[in-house]
Specification:
Blueprint (H helix, E strand, L loop, with lengths): L4 E3 L5 E3 L25 E2 L2 E2 L14 H19 L12 H9 L49 H16 L15 H8 L2 H10 L4 H17 L3 H13 L4 H11 L8 H14 L4 H6 L9 E2 L9 E2 L5 H10 L3 H11 L3 H9 L11 H11 L5 H12 L3 H8 L12 H13 L3 H13 L4 E2 L6 E2 H15 L7 H9 L3 H17 L5
Antiparallel strand pairs: 1-2, 3-4, 5-6, 7-8
């Protein structure tokens, strides 16, 4: 049965084919002056007969009733005697603004209110809000107070913002990511690492990435490259930036893995974007076509994120300036007169007599100059740190340059050190653990996630096992970190640490 929607005289819509009168008020259908044309749309009812408009608002009895009550109330209110409440000298909202901006000038005293007539006080459960006295002017901040200097804070923000933009945010389509992420991470680990992970319960994502990097490195030492690949990919997802270089290096020129070459080129270009120093020279010699690689991911603008955006010459200079060992070696060999190295550099437009200043040399100049360092040299060093130069980040985190504009507080030091650590700086891994421990809390917030005691122990171990010479024992160096763990955490981590130490040819 078709519906014929109409409105009653009171304006209620109803189906005239189903009800003779309005089922709400029993009124009959309101008469309309003209029928709607076929196919018209009225009152939101498509394909049905349009109902007439409701009665004008001024003819509705309810409106007049409400208006009468409001008028009566207003009349009674106007006949009541008036009392003027005192005006606070500094209202709470203005006082709050003054405490965070500058002290407000005292308000003039209010005029005395006339005595109220004796009328019954209204019953109320709302207590009056006491108005505190005006806040005293805040003392000015010292110009060179550590961590509070405006230039220092600006430099910290500039570096950390750039680092966040160049972090591990590109997700290649071939990564076999699984949810929940921790389950995916554990699936890529070896049994010893799984037990350590479950027992220690590290909370920072970068620590999980570092565990996966360690596991991948041990697999690579055993020549199990496919397993290493899976662990490095998972480690990259958890924020361990050095995994990009680890993913590219073994596969880039290995004839046993020809199908991995294109992926290796892409990983190396991502490593260059993140700031890995030795990635630049590798990208420089990719050859035609490889430099136009693009990555697409969920929210990337049209065209994708282009990697390998520099020219071959600029990529090489990028790596050399940041103390990349590969670039330094080629330049050194070319300077000794090797024609092959000279021709290789000439082919990409590198003149060994016009090389950029290296980070270590720039840092030396700034350390010698102290607070009298030239502004352009400071700016160049900050720019290198912001671009992911691990050596520059580490130098800033340990405050080797005695300059007020680089006198960062401990939280910023920790963030810079962590950024250097995940880019492969072994000494920064140790420093990250030291700084997190120095704050004195059981859990410390960092850009890579909250670090607890287990996170600190893992960072300290990774730095020691990579940095120490084979004849130096690792165990004594990390014993202070193991001693702060509960027994379950220690029982999970210590055997794992010993296994990694042995696999890397080091002594516990």
């Amino acid at each position: 049965m078709t519906r014929r929607m109409v409105r009653c005289v009171q304006g209620h819509p109803f189906d005239a084919n189903a009800h003779e009168t309005c089922p709400i008020c029993a009124s009959r259908e309101a008469k309309v002056s003209a029928a709607p044309t076929e196919g018209s749309v009225s009152n939101g009812l498509r394909g049905e007969q349009a109902a007439p408009s409701p009665a004008p608002w001024h003819k509705t009895p309810l409106i007049w009733t409400v208006a009468g009550v409001a008028f009566l109330g207003a009349t009674v209110y106007m006949l009541q005697p008036k009392t003027v409440p005192p005006v606070p000298a500094n209202p709470p909202d203005l006082q709050k603004q003054a405490s965070t901006d500058r002290p407000a000038a005292p308000s003039p005293a209010p005029a005395p209110a006339p005595p109220p007539e004796a009328i019954p006080a209204p019953q109320s459960t709302v207590r009056p809000i006491p108005v505190p006295a005006p806040a005293a002017p805040a003392p000015p901040l010292p110009t060179m107070q550590p961590g509070k200097n405006a230039a220092t804070m600006h430099n910290a923000q500039r570096i950390l913002t750039r680092l966040a933009q160049n972090s591990t945010d590109i997700e290649p389509p071939w990564i076999k990511r699984r949810d929940p992420p921790d389950q995916w991470a554990m699936g890529a680990m070896d049994d010893a690492a799984k037990k350590a992970f479950q027992a220690a319960q590290p909370t920072a994502n970068v620590t999980k990435g570092l565990l996966l990097y360690l596991s991948g490195f041990t697999a690579q030492k055993k020549n199990d490259l496919p397993t290493a690949l899976l662990r490095y990919e998972a480690g990259y997802y958890f924020g361990c930036a050095i995994c990009t270089f680890a993913l590219a290096g073994p596969y880039l020129y290995d004839p046993a893995f020809p199908e991995q070459r294109s992926r290796a080129q892409l990983w190396m270009a991502i490593a260059e974007r993140i700031g890995i120093a030795d990635a630049g020279p590798s990208v420089a010699f990719f050859g035609p076509g490889a430099r136009d690689l693009k990555l697409m991911r969920g929210e990337t603008p049209a065209g994708g994120i282009k990697v390998g955006a520099y020219s071959p010459r600029d990529s090489f200079m990028y790596g050399y300036a940041r103390n990349g060992p590969g670039a330094m070696q080629i330049v050194d060999v070319a300077r000794r007169g090797d024609s092959s190295a000279q021709n290789t550099l000439k082919r990409i437009g590198v003149d060994i007599n016009k090389l950029p200043e290296m980070t270590i040399a720039l840092a030396g100049r700034l350390i010698d100059a102290g607070d009298k360092a030239p502004a352009d040299a400071l700016d160049a060093f900050i720019e290198r740190a912001a671009g992911g130069d691990s050596l520059a980040l580490h130098i800033l985190s340990v405050k080797s340059i005695a300059n007020p504009v680089l006198d960062f507080d401990v939280e910023t030091q920790l963030a810079l050190s962590q950024a250097a650590a995940v880019r492969g700086k072994e000494r920064a891994m140790i420093k990250t653990a030291e700084l997190a421990n120095s704050i004195g809390r059981t859990e410390v917030n960092t850009p890579g996630g909250p670090m607890n005691r287990a996170d600190q122990a893992i960072f300290a171990f990774a730095g020691q096992v990579f940095e120490l010479a084979p004849n130096q024992p690792v165990g004594p160096a990390i014993e202070p970190y193991l001693a702060r763990l509960d027994q379950t955490q220690r029982n999970g981590l210590e055997p794992y640490f010993k296994g990694v130490t042995s696999a890397l040819g080091k002594r516990w």
